[in-house]
Structure formats: C-alpha cells, structure tokens
Amino acid sequence: MTKRPEIVKFASKNDLSLLNEFVNLPNWTGKEACLLVEDLDFFFSEFPLDIALAKDICLECPMMVACRDYALKHENNGVWGGLSADERFKLRGNKEAIETHEIAALIQEKDYIMLKPAETIAEAYDVDTRTVARWRGMIRDAQKAS
Fold first, then answer.
1. Contact 26/70 with Cβ under 8 angstroms?
2. What is the b/e burial string over 84-115, where b = at least 16 CB atoms within 10 angstroms of the residue's CB?
3. pTM for the model
4. Cystine design at 118: which of 19, 48, 56, 132 (Cβ 3.0–4.6 Å)?
5. How far apart are CA 113 and CA 71, in angstroms?
6. Residue 135 contacts residue 8 (beta carbons within 8 Å)
7. pLDDT in tens, 58-68
8. Is 26 left (phi over 0), alpha (psi -120 to 50) or beta?
C-alpha cells in the first residue's frame, strides 16, 4: 500500500490556514525578557515553582502577547508568553499545536507536490499520475477553505 504524503493527510483534515499563518511569525527583537536569563531550563520545567518564575519573567516582556499568540499555534512545551504548556493545550481545545518544524516540512512537501511534474511525484511515491492529480485537488480544496 502506498504511503500518502503528510500534506495530503493534513489537507484532508484541515484547511491550510496554519501554513499561511506560519509565514507571519512575530518579529523577534532580541530584547525579549527570556533572553536576558542565563539558564532557560526552568521555562521548560514541570515544577510549579519554575513555571511561576518563568511566567513572572514573561510579565516583564514587551513581546509577551506576540510570543503567546505564536506559542498557541506552534509550541507544545514550556512557558511561552506567560502561559504554560497545559494552559495552551486547554486554550486550544485540548489539542496539540502543530510545531514550527512540522509546518516547515508540510510547506516543503506541498510545494514539491504542487510544483513538480506529476510523473516525478508519481515515481517518488510509487503511484500513478491520477493519484497525484487527486492529491493536488485535495490540497487546492484545503487552500480554498483557508
């Protein structure tokens, strides 16, 4: 049985707005409060005292809102924008975020499938060109829903 590309699986379940939002990442300034801390380990700790300390540092940061918005979409671990991983998980409706590296891979795969000749894709995935056409249709439909 042929393995469907991850982007096709993703497109069949979601619109592709997350991929579009990925290109609109915050402009990090280099002056974020967390960057002034020597040891960032407590931002990724499970201990309540460490989480509270990380949140306190976030409160001093001019990028807190942008950081929080980014993390709600792309981070499953650690304190970001004053919210713990558990708080973000609940705010997302008990769903995991699609992390940045996963989105980058999906974008690359989408571009490959949509831009390369159908014969090249068919050969790479060991399918016929009709299957490639169907995959492209699913991706286009998901893009329209975005």
1. yes
2. bbebbbeeeeeeebbeeebbeebbebbeebee
3. 0.66
4. 132
5. 28
6. yes
7. 999 999 999 99
8. beta
Backbone phi, psi, residue 80, to 5°: -135, 130
Higher-confidence residue: 64 or 145? 64
What gap in Å lies between CA 103 and CA 11, rounded to an integer? Answer: 12
For the four alpha carbons of 20, 22, 27 and 33, in that order, the dihedral sign comes to positive
CA dist list (Å): 46 to 54, 76, 84: 11, 13, 9
| Exposure on the CB side of residue 34, measured as CA atoms within 13 A | 21
The pair of three-digit structure tokens given for residue 36, joined into one six-digit string: 């002034």
